[in-house]
Amino acid sequence: MRLFAIFLLCFGVTKATPIDSKLGDFSKSKNPKALPVGWRIKEGKKADIKVWEQEEQSGFILPTDLKLTRTINFQPLTEKESKAGGEWTTFLGFDSLKSPGKAQLTLSDDQNKIVASILTTPSKSGRLWAEISPEKTAQLFGKKLTLQLAISGGGVLSQGVHLCRINSKPGKHLFGRSNGGLGPDKLNAGSLGFSAMTEHAQTILPVMEVRKRLAADKAGLKPGDRIIEVNRQPLPINDLKPGWDWFHHSHEATLGRAVLAAASPQRREDMRNIVELGVLRKGKLERLHLKVPRAMNFSNLDPGKDKTADVLHQDLIAYLVKNQRPDGSWSRDPIRTTFSALALMATRDTQHTKRIKKAVDYLLNRYPEAEKFGNLGFWHSAYAGILYSEYYLASGDDRVLGRMQDIRDWALTGTHTSKWGMPALGHGIGGLPYGQKALIAPLAHLIVFEALAKRCGMKSKIWEELTPYIEHSWSDPKSKNGHGAMGYNASYKDLGEFWSRSGLCAIACELRGERPDMRDALTKIMHERHPWIRNSHAYGEPGGALGLLALNLTNQDAYRDVIKQYAWWFALAWEPGYGLRFSTPHMGAPYMGEDDLVSATYALVLAAPNKTLHLTGAKDRKWMDVSALTTPVSPVRIKRSRDGLVSMEGTSPGNPVHYTVDGSEPTKESLKFQKPFPFDSGKISALVIDKVGNSGPINSKTFGPAPAKWKIIAASGHSDPAEAIRRASRSIDGDRNKCWLTDMGEGTRGYPHHLVIDFGEARTIKGVKIHFADQKRTPSKWSLKGSQSTDQSPLLLGEKSATSWEPEQTLKLDKEVKLRYLRFEAVNDGEPDKKSLFVREIEIL
Known about the structure:
Elements: E1 7-9, E2 40-43, E3 50-54, E4 57-62, E5 67-73, H1 79-82, E6 88-97, E7 102-108, E8 114-119, E9 126-132, H2 134-140, E10 144-152, E11 156-167, E12 185-189, E13 194-198, E14 205-210, H3 215-219, E15 226-230, E16 233-234, H4 244-249, H5 251-262, E17 274-281, E18 284-291, H6 307-323, H7 334-347, H8 353-366, H9 377-395, H10 401-413, E19 416-417, E20 423-424, H11 433-436, H12 441-455, H13 462-473, H14 499-512, H15 516-528, H16 540-554, H17 556-564, H18 567-573, E21 574-575, E22 579-580, H19 595-607, E23 636-640, E24 645-650, E25 657-660, E26 671-672, E27 677-678, E28 682-688, E29 699-703, E30 711-715, H20 721-728, E31 740-741, E32 753-772, E33 781-787, E34 795-801, E35 808-827, E36 838-844
Antiparallel strand pairs: 1-11, 2-5, 3-4, 4-11, 5-10, 6-9, 6-11, 7-8, 7-10, 12-13, 13-14, 14-15, 15-16, 15-17, 17-18, 19-20, 21-22, 23-24, 24-27, 25-26, 25-28, 28-29, 30-32, 31-36, 32-35, 32-36, 33-34, 33-35
């Protein structure tokens, strides 16, 4: 959404900030004679107007006695702008170079009354501004206005005309759509001590916040100030689109490069470490000197070789230490917790061992079951799995191994048939988005986790099952029009939002030692198109950092080349003594985190060349000793395998578990769980008690007969009968983490659904309990039928309808029945769009 109506009426595109009078040879222009776009000649000849170009600058030579006019519609405020508060002021600007003649630029309203005027003089060069008051601006909204430019006394060299309207109270209430929009967005100048509101195609940068006692505050910068110059050069036309123009000429890059240049030994001594900002106040230009708190003289941004980068890295680690919460998390978020813990782990400093384990315990306790990761579960669970894997490789603490396997198995329950016929994943187990086309990004995170987990001894399954989808989504450079990047999916193999998904897939290839052709093609296009670093779909950060980690792991020459080119970003974002300040990326997602996110991710990136994690190139193991650290008490997880073996552990594993099987409450005198034991049916109660006597809550679980001999012999839920049976078998495996979820992908039929259980022998049952997993995928009615043999017609045993959703539904039979085969049938009356069934476990009574 364009919140500031900016009419950029350019004679030429200003691609570089410096303006000088060296015209170059305009005769070499592709269009040596042209009329500025949108303008018409009122007096004079078109043939006398000429284009000039030099290096990255261009503009027009306007002859004497020329008059140009242009009509514009001064857009009314949007609803959002109208509610923003503050006052709107309009600024008319004109770019001129030293010229023999004069130019007069006027803006007239719909009654031909002049509301603003600029007159240039032959000796002046730069950008001149005229301010239109808030009262007058309010009268112009929705009107047709006329611009007139008159040249006299000789020719004039010009680069453009600008018309901007600015709110007196810039802030997040005016921000546009952060995910792929063109602003307004937050621009944070950490080293200069202020934040501003940046917008595409703007030539004024309004200040939002000035932080106390920092450079901007000391220099007198104020919220609401309008920055128009940096180091006496007019701000270029701001470009918020990802790409080379953003990299070179955005306001963020302009400020960042000015901070870098401030440390140059070529600067005058009195201007050393000074950034001069020109601000408009009440129509007048005032210049402020902001002193950068330390010289940003980065060399290669490798803390082991670059002293300035080392100080930055120390600041980031200190930020993480300071901001870890008492529960062990960072911001109570699995992504920021993972990055922060990995960054501390990458230091290999023993003083952080306790903090790292505390973070791992937080994730273990918060997500005892993989499904707890929620609707975006494949993203969050993959991050937790990456941390668990690195933690195990560093410490050998096997408490995390079971959770890693749970994540893998849970992810596989969420595969569905894609539009192209191969299995695919969505954001979580609930289906495939985008018309069954799915997307690669969550899967890309999962295959990085699995590649690390494979080094921990876990069997790889996700890569094997989903490789066809990965290959189908990749733009193989050997194919027609292939460019090497990883696509969003097979229907959108773009070169705009490719950065993080390409990097993650390259990491997985490298860690697995497979597909070097894919790895090299992915990193090659990333190197070539690095200005798209912050444009990963809905994932500008941490996507940017993930891509850099990929380059570090797979192609260190490319990594070194790319990261040093972003010294300007580090120089601007870094607030010494604090950490990195967040600026909204192109594909921004502030809900992912702000300062806490970038400080964590780039603490990890800066440590990457040291190869201290497997994610960054390490090979060694068990270098971190956690044996003396305590584990917090927590609730107990009680599980039983298909063959009837019961296991127990705390949601934060590590403390002893005491249990009873006779219905009594457990105490420290009760049996202590040592190893899995057989248990056919009944109630188990358990609690955790640590070494000093602290205990967790009592948890109880009642089991029916163990399904050791059971098997599924028929089922619905997939077009392939064998796959349908494989999926349905998860409902009798004793593992609530692996559920029977019918296929929701391409070509699925939906209800009615069924399965047939063969108990392996005739047995007496009193009823059946069904554990449903999701209200949206629970049938409106289900029934049971049974028989003694496959030759016998099954008899109806009973039906169950739920008036409200119940996760556990029990159908008790009128009398005991002896049977070998049980058929479960589910229908969904009245909701034709509901097609899938989601069952955790089936038990018999």
